[in-house]
Amino acid sequence: MAAPSSARLEVLGVRHHGPGSARAVGRALDELRPDLVVIEGVPELDQTLPFAASPELRPPVAGLVYAVDRPRNAIFYPLAVFSPEWVAMRWALAAGVDVCFADLPAIHELAPPDETDSDTAEPTDQAGPTTPATPPDPIGLLAEAAGYDDPERWWEDAIEHRSESGLEQFRLVSEAMSATREQDTRPDSDPDVLWNARREAAMRRRVRAAIKAGKERIAFVCGAFHAPMLQLDSFPAAAADNRLLAKLPRTKVAATWAPWTAGRLAVESGYGAGVTSPGWYQHLFLHWDSGDEDVASSWLVRVARELREQGIDASTASVVESARLATTLATLRGRPSVGLSELNDAAEAVLCSGSPVPLRLVHDNLVVGNDLGTVPDGAPMVPLAADLARQQRSTRLKPSAVAKTVDLDLRRDAGRARSVLLHRLRLLQIDWGTEIDARGTGTFRESWELEWRPELAVQVVEASLHGTTVAAAADSRVREIARESDDLTRITALVSDAMVADLPEALDAVVAALEAGTARQHDAGVLLGTIGPLARTRRYGNVRGVDVRRLDAVLHTIVTRASIALPGASHGLDDDAAAALRSLVELAAEGIALLDVDALNRPWRAALHSVARGAALHGSLAGRVNRMLLDAQEIDLAEATLRLSRQLSVGAHAAESAAWLDGFLAGDAALLIYDRNLLAIIDGWISTIRQSTFDDLLPLVHRTFSRFEATDRQQMGELIARLGEPGSDRAGTTYELEQALPAIHHAAELLGLEVTR
């Protein structure tokens, strides 16, 4: 391109999050005084620049660009206070200099892929294996050439910790990157090579447009890798760049600012351009920016303060000694200034008495950091995000990058409002809060763990497809699930979800879907599985002031249909199927007992009687059903004892008898402790088992009795030892009435009764 002779382009190749690079960019801009600052980033971010000057935009933040019709398809551009791009943007805004972004537009970057790449990629005559070549590591190559075995260490020593003036340093970085890019043997058709070529072509196009508009001094802040391809004297013909950018797919996008966290700037979070120690880098930059070059002492003061908060002694004298040791280590290691490794080694040796454990306690707070950025209220956002922000303020639930536990009292309006908001967000799959220590819907308390993560901004945008407010979106989402789901268990769970989220209209839609699903469902297991959750919802709906009386008819229908289907479903079961059905029967029985309504008890107990009378039933299920009938006083103890005696008779199969016993004894041990006849029957059955069978049955019997408390097992052992002694057929022990009389009189007085002998 034939550029005007007066045009000057300075390419400032940087590391995206480097305090030294950020400081060098600031100095280079002061020296150059450009009339245009160009920053690597999709041009759609230009619309967010008016908000960048606001004091309410505090890093870490990220430029967020997303596809309007597919919000999950998004790009984040994180910026910290020590990011060179942030420094360049704020410098331009403060100086009144034009600033813009340049990269491959997001309308192409976020568009669905098509066959364009294969059409525009130039053919290659190279033959050989189809496995793509490994891209070179520019920093690794330069570090190796400099005699370093750690690329990160080389970059810090050569770039981040240097205080020389900027422009010459950036020219040297560009030359070094040019040499490393020459080592790349991948063909032009390689997807990564082609993608970078298109990005650089888009950057050059933006520069050409700026020069054509009359800009004479342009500073371009970009990743060091791209610097060699953006030198003005090496620009290819504009036509070549236009061919690379022709016929690319397009999609509609939107851009805004989103809060970011220090933890997500760390490379360990999975962020490709992340750094190992964002908290340390921020400390470096802020002290350098204030003119304080002694970063070691101030850092160690912070370390000592954190250690004290963890209950570890750290004296002022030890801080001074640690700073001296860190400086000495940096000198011995030939480093331009004290680095984090020297500070860690010094702190471990002096402040922590040689142990690395205390430093691990303060790593997250100091080395990584827990800052959460803020965004101006006027920044573009979807209506749902604005409504969420209003509700966060009204409920006083402030987003935080640090996980914190919130206890809610549902008897108070504030507690209910917070609970409703969090449950609605969970329905929208916005995972800001996780419910912990759940005690069921029948309690007046909830506990949540809240932690705001950057990707939640995308989840909010995605959820906005369902509505413009949190309530409307949650209502729409619940209706959609109820309409599309044919899983009765899922719809049943949705009843409780809609209730706790205070969505009465959506609850009506879910109940209607439940009614329709129940009419089509014939599987006894599925029907049984819905009874417990529905019963709890019906029982505890008044805790939240929700009218759930409409569930009565649905619940009655489900219990009736389950009761009819249960006897037929109880036959021909293997061990696993019997265990699964027994568990479902237990859960259903708990739900029905919770309501204790005669309209539900009658069909249910009739079904239990039918199962108990059935032949060829699995012992585990049959024993459990008989115990339920005994507990419900549908059969008396004498009848239960007779049925147990039959199952444990000599003619019964030993393994089947053990399974029946396991089902019958499920629950507490009081039945055996206070009824010696049952205990004697079991003891006699075990005594008659043959030795060859006993070894196989021992684990089964042990599992049955191991469910009881240790004190109960001890008491049963003592009772078994006394079986056969005179008076041992009497339930319980002999009571000393004279000793008990004072307690009896006191209890009678409290109850308003009289005691006569």
From TrEMBL:
Question: Where are the stretches annotated Disordered?
Answer: 110-140
Q: Where is the composition biased (Acidic residues)?
A: 112-122
Matching InterPro entries: DUF5682
The protein depicted here goes by the name Uncharacterized protein
- Organism of provenance: Flexivirga oryzae
